[in-house]
Amino acid sequence: MAVVPGGLLGARTLIQASYFLTAVLFITGLKRMSSPLSARSGIVWAGAGMLVATLVTLAYPGMSNYPLIGAAIVLGGVLAWWSGKRVAMTDMPQMIALYNGMGGGAAASIAAVELYRGGGGSQVGTALAVAGGLIGAVSFSGSAIAFGKLQGLIRRSIRFRGQQFVSVLLLAGALLAGALEVLHGGAAGYVTGLLGLALLLGLAMTLPIGGADMPVVISLYNALTGLAVGFEGFALHNAAMIIAGTVVGSAGTLLTQLMARAMNRSLGNVLFSGFGEAPGASTGPLSGSLKPIEAADVGVMLAFAHKVIVVPGYGMAVAQAQHKIWELCQLLIERGVMVRFAIHPVAGRMPGHMNVLLAEAGVPYDLIGDLEQINAEFDTADVALIIGANDVVNPVARTEKSSPIYGMPILNADRAKNVIVIKRGQGAGFSGIENALFYLDNTRMLYGDAQKVGAELIQAVKALG
Amino acid sequence: MTGIVALYIFMLAAFTGYEVISRVPVILHTPLMSGSNFVHGIVLVGAMVALGQAHTPLEKSIGFIGVLLAAGNAVGGYVVTERMLRMFKSSKARSGAPGER
């Protein structure tokens, strides 16, 4: 059992004080991350807290196996460092899922070690270790599937009749094994059953969920891992783990709700229905026609505009066009055009992802407006430049009750004087829904790869001198 | 640590997490999720204790995997969060655009 023995007063006091300091550094760090001005220092503060806690834990009483500990830290740390340094910003969501799954797996491992050894000392301790192990294992296998899906390793969503029944059955089985372990204790079979069924549950819960809903699921698993860490902290009497885990658990739950709301989905909907990928019921044929336009004409339109609002979507990031677009915008700004970026909460693969991608290209964050700030500004904009975005500017969400995206808050790009849509070709958006915006009288379509079109627009604006 | 004190810690930490996040602008949601992902990497200290006090080969093996995964969570979470946050810059002196926030 991991209670710090009272005999070693010096080490004990040092450890408790250090964990206290770690908790303070974590909370301060998270708070600093809530403003773009101080965000960078926030992660450094939190990192210092982690370092303190890790170093002082080496002095924990009754520890052995130091070579093993060192080897595991170096191996895991180096691999994560290497992968974290080279991952592309577009792939960030799945990388977060991967690291999160590792945390869940670690929590489950702690539970396994404690339980195989014979439980957490008391029934309450055992119950908390069981709860943390169950949640951690679900988060581990679920996050692995989420990673696989976003990385393109798992292309199909596996669905079959009675899937939810299977999930409920797995959960019930895991709970039963956990309850037996708490009541009778010390039986390796119960522990193996609990963790095995929990791992299967994570697979069964995540496999049917479509790629579009994955960010919400990743956020949910992030919260669950936090909770699992908190529970294991209770079982180990480790205050740093209790505080950090619980803070992440509640913060992650709130973040998950915010994301689901931004996507016009309830959490239950995400977990128990399959819309995230299935094409929605197509709305009736839209009136009007798609009116193409040439890059040179758009260049003139932009150069002589008073105000331009750029609406980037994931399509822009896929084409790696953000650098070209920012170059274009800098030219316009030099000419005295007021340029703003409008970002929908689900513009990237997860809320805030597009901000990261624009920041990578060098776009200052104060040019970027979120949904509420920017929607009032479209009325005064001369041009709304839509790049690789689709569903988030579809006015159908306001009007068409039968549409799957009905009720989703959208960017009011249709209210700008002119709307230019840069698009690779004709076709529906991520959700498979026709976009009424493309057929409006003030909309022109500029077909082509976003990066190539960006270069053409730069040429066109430069040609004007 | 008695049960009731632990319960108080749990309750206060839950409110803290909720409060800290509720004031965050949407533009920081992805780095913040990544940052909170890093914070639960504190599971590393638990995994170190579990491995440090392991005796049987089974306990040692699972403990080793636990420390490995936890170190990956902590280090990876830090690296990607820092990379993202380093990129956020303001345009204060550069343009005449209206800058709120």
Radius of gyration of chain B: 20 Å
**Largest interface, chains and sizes:** A-B, 125 and 90 residues
Summarize the biggest pleated sheet of chain A.
6 strands, parallel
Helix and strand run of chain B: HHHH
Shape of chain A: elongated
Query: Beta-sheet strand percentage of chain A?
Result: 5-15%
Distance between the termini of chain B: 43 Å
Number of distinct helices of chain A: 17
Whole-number total of structural domains of chain A: 3
Give the averaged pLDDT of chain B, no decimals: 85
Structural write-up:
Chain A is α/β, with parallel strands linked by helices and 465 residues long. Chain A folds into 3 domains: 13-59; 89-239 and 250-278, no CATH class; 295-462, TPP-binding domain (Rossmann fold, 3-Layer(aba) Sandwich). Chain A has helices spanning 9-32, 39-57, 66-86, 92-117, 123-150, 163-184, 188-206, 214-236, 239-262, 267-272, 295-303, 314-318, 322-334, 353-361, 371-375, 396-399, 450-463; strands spanning 307-312, 338-343, 368-370, 383-387, 418-423, 443-447. In chain A, strands 3-2-1-4-5-6 form a 6-stranded parallel sheet. In chain A, α16 (396-399) links the parallel β4 and β5. In chain A, α4 (92-117) packs antiparallel against α5 (123-150) and α4 runs antiparallel to α7 (188-206). Chain A is elongated and about 75 Å long. Chain A starts with 8 loop residues before the first helix and ends with a helix. Chain B is mainly α and 101 residues long. Chain B has a domain at 31-89. Chain B has helices at residues 3-22, 29-39, 43-52, 57-86. In chain B, α2 runs antiparallel to α4 (57-86) and α3 runs antiparallel to α4 (57-86). Chain B is flat and about 60 Å long. Mean pLDDT of chain B is 85; it is low at 93-101.
